[in-house]
Amino acid sequence: MYRYFGELLSRSAGSALASGCVDSALPVSSSLMRVRRYTDAADKPDDPNFFKMVEGFYDRGAAIVEDKLVEDLRTRESSEQKRQRVRGILRIIKPCNHVLSVSFPIKRDNGEWEVVEGYRAQHSQHRTPCKGGIRYSTDVSVDEVKALASLMTYKCAVVNVPFGGAKAGVKINPRNYS
């Protein structure tokens, strides 16, 4: 399902870019307009939440490919049962499977102790092992790590690399430590 979802997304993106207008490749429907909640963030003074933006783009992509996935599903089920199956699979794929939050102490060169926070998210284990790196920054958050892990899953699916997505983050500036 991931590979097929990735192929459809890459084909849609390619045809949209070739036509010169990204919006022309998207079907206009009320369900698609309802999914575009992430655009409302532009009206707010704060920056939009990165994780909510990634989820919004996932919802938009799922709405675009849902009909094609239902059409290509090879089972003896009715059309409505196929649609429910595809929607269920898309709902299962969306959230992160595991998110781990840790706090650990480190001893500085001057003898002080400091507690450092870290996060690890594994978005999908449908295709294992999970691929991802570690981000070291004082701005790391759980939402950012979850968003980056899900993006890694989708990137691997688009190019048919057999890995799930994962990401880790440590709330630290490595330049300040020996």
From TrEMBL:
The keyword Oxidoreductase applies. Residues 98-178 form the Glutamate/phenylalanine/leucine/valine/L-tryptophan dehydrogenase dimerisation domain. InterPro entries: Aminoacid_DH-like_N_sf, Glu/Leu/Phe/Val/Trp_DH_dimer, Glu/Leu/Phe/Val_DH_AS. Gene3D superfamilies: 1.10.287.140, Leucine Dehydrogenase, chain A, domain 1 (3.40.50.10860). Pfam families: ELFV_dehydrog_N. PROSITE patterns: GLFV_DEHYDROGENASE. Belongs to the Glu/Leu/Phe/Val dehydrogenases family. This is Glutamate dehydrogenase.
